[in-house]
Design brief:
Elements: E1 2-7, H1 15-22, E2 28-33, H2 38-52, E3 56-59
Parallel strand pairs: 1-2, 1-3
């Protein structure tokens, strides 16, 4: 299986864990650092998917939320994204 692991920055994934995953004999794994933000992620991820043709893409990293029901460090699965602030000022 061809797996692509995607993070916005290098510090968002444990290097020991990444090395263990990438050195697995069972799967072919590549890691992509896209840069922060939806635009950078979309551009670099689309370019890599077209070239690498992965069977599975995992976008992992540190994210933020405006909802107080999530504790710092809590693991969540994102099922919907709302683009509240894209860096524009009125």
């Amino acid at each position: 299986m061809r797996i692509l692991i995607c993070t916005a920055t290098e510090i968002e994934i444990d290097k020991n864990c990444l090395d263990e995953i990438m050195n697995s004999d069972k799967n072919q794994v590549e890691w992509l650092v896209t840069g922060m933000g939806a635009m950078a992620t979309t551009y670099h991820l689309t370019k890599k998917i077209n070239a690498y043709k992965p069977d599975l893409v995992i976008n992992a990293g540190i994210a933020g939320s405006f909802r107080k029901e999530f504790s710092i460090g809590e693991v969540v699965q994102v099922t919907e994204d709302i683009f509240a602030d894209m860096g524009f000022d009125d």
